[in-house]
C-alpha cells in the first residue's frame, strides 16, 4: 500500500465538515417549511342548564276515595222487610224513609198496649173516686181507719199500673215507628246488605250510608316512606278517571301500628275542595313531597371560583336541583358533577345529594340554577378540557 500524501487527511476533514454543514442547513430548511399540526376540535358533550326542583316526590302511592263518615242503616226491631225504596248509589236526605217492615205484628203490639193503658186508666179512675169518698167519710168518722188505708193502697197500686201501661204503650208506639227505616244523615247509599222479603233481626245492617260532606283519601304507606310523613302535611291527589286535574289533600291521621299482613301503615288524608268530579270509591294516586333540608350545621363544599378560593353553604340554604343519574361523577369518595364554564371548559364540582331516585338524583348544593351540567359521558372527559355543548337527543329518556 502506497503512503498517503501529506495533505490528504486535512483535505478529507474539510470535505466532511462541508457535507455536514450542508445537511444541517437542508434539515433546518425542511423543518421551517413544515406546517404546525391543527388543534383537536372541542369534544361534544351533552349538557343542560340546571333548573330548580319545586317539589321532590318521595312516594306516589295508590289510594281510594272514601267518605270520612260511613254508618250502617238498620232496623231497631226485628221483622220482615216488605219494601225498599232506595237502591245502591242513590242519594238520600236526612229523615227519608228507605225501607219498611211488615207492620202487622207491630200494630197489634201497639193496639194491645193501648188497651192495657185504657184498662189501667179505668182502674185508676175507680180507685181515685173510692179514695176520695173514703177520705171524706173518714173525716166524719163514718168508716174505720183500716178501710181508708185499703183505699189509699188500692189508689197507689192503680196509679203505678197506669204509669206502667202508659210507658208500655209509648214503647209499642215507638216500635211501630221503628218499622220504618229512616236515613239519619244526608248521604249516598254505598251498599245493600238485605233484600225485600228477608227477615232481619234488630240491628242487622240493611244499607251502608256514606255521609255527604268531608271526603277522605285512604292509602297504605310503606315503611320506607313513613319517616317523611306527618300529620298536617300536604299531598297532591290525581284521579285516573279525571286526567289532567289534581287536588290538594292534608294528612289527617296516620296509623300508629302496621298492618300485620301487608306491613304498611294506613294514612287518611282530608281532600280539600273535592268538587263534583270526585266520586266515592274512585281510585287515586297520592304524591307526597319532602322538604330537602338537613340540619343547618351541615355544610357543603362549594366549588372554587376563578381565584381558586372555596366557599361553603348550609344544606338548609341550598336550592334543590334534580339531575339524571348519568350526570353523577365522583371526586375521590365524594359525589360530583362536571360543570361547563363560560369559556366552554370543564370543571369538576362536588355536590351534596339529597335524594336518590330511580333514574334521577336531587342535589341540594354545589351548583346553581342556570349552570350547564354534563348529562352524558362523564367518565370520558377531564378537567379543563374544551368542549362543545349539544342538547340531548331524547330528553324524555332522562325524565324521572
From TrEMBL:
Domain CusB-like beta-barrel, residue spans: 217-290
Keywords: Signal
Secretion signal span: 1-30
SUPFAM superfamilies in UniProt: HlyD-like secretion proteins
Cellular-component GO terms for this entry: efflux pump complex
InterPro entries recorded: Beta-barrel_RND_2 (IPR058792), MdtA-like_BSH (IPR058625), RND_pump_MFP (IPR006143)
One of the Pfam families matching this protein, by short name: Beta-barrel_RND_2
Top-rank taxon, per record: Bacteria
GO MF term set: efflux transmembrane transporter activity
Organism: Pandoraea horticolens
Family according to the record: Belongs to the membrane fusion protein (MFP) (TC 8.A.1) family.
Protein name, UniProt field: RND family efflux transporter MFP subunit
Keyword Signal part of the UniProt annotation: yes
Location of the Multidrug resistance protein MdtA-like barrel-sandwich hybrid domain: 76-205
